[in-house]
Amino acid sequence: MIAPDQRMPFVLPVRIYWEDTDAGGIVYYANYLKFMERARSEWLRAQGIEQGPLQREQGIIFVVVSAETHFHRPARYGDLLHVSCEVEKQTKASWTFKQDVTRDVEGSPELLVTGRVRVACLDAEKFRPRALPENLLSRERQDQ
To answer: Could you tell me the mean pLDDT of each successive run of 10 residues in the chain, 144 residues long?
Structure first.
């Protein structure tokens, strides 16, 4: 995983295994959403934030409320992908992430998938929207 630079998106490397591919030998489309989820979780972790303690100690969870993906080129078994994650928009109770999936081709990134994922902060018991905790808001302000 590549540590976040305040001017650069967070990037998670993901190797493609047989289990990630379909009968045609290309990455099954739904797996890109899994890769994006991992990148968002690792983005939080890189900032010292673990989702388990957030739920237990602060009573909040994050849920995906919308996901938009565009598929440009296929990935295949053995490819090493780079899944980026950056906050595009922040509201009182949600983040919208811009996420790209690329691979290196002759030293240049080749865009495979683009996505936008909106994640809401919810009360873990009531499943109602809840404001992002100040410690998360202040961390994000530092990154912008």
So the answer is: 58 98 95 98 91 93 97 97 96 96 95 98 96 72 46
Which amino acid, one-letter code, is at 80?
Answer: L
Amino acid residing at 127? F
**Helices assigned H by DSSP within the chain:** 29-46, 51-53, 134-143
The CA-atom distances, in angstroms, between 133 and each of 20, 45, 58 are: 35, 16, 9
Q: Identify the structural domains of the chain with CATH numbers, from first to last.
A: 10-143 (3.10.129.10)
- Please tell me which residue in 5, 20, 22, 79 is annotated as part of the active site: 22
Let me know if 104 is a catalytic residue.
Answer: no
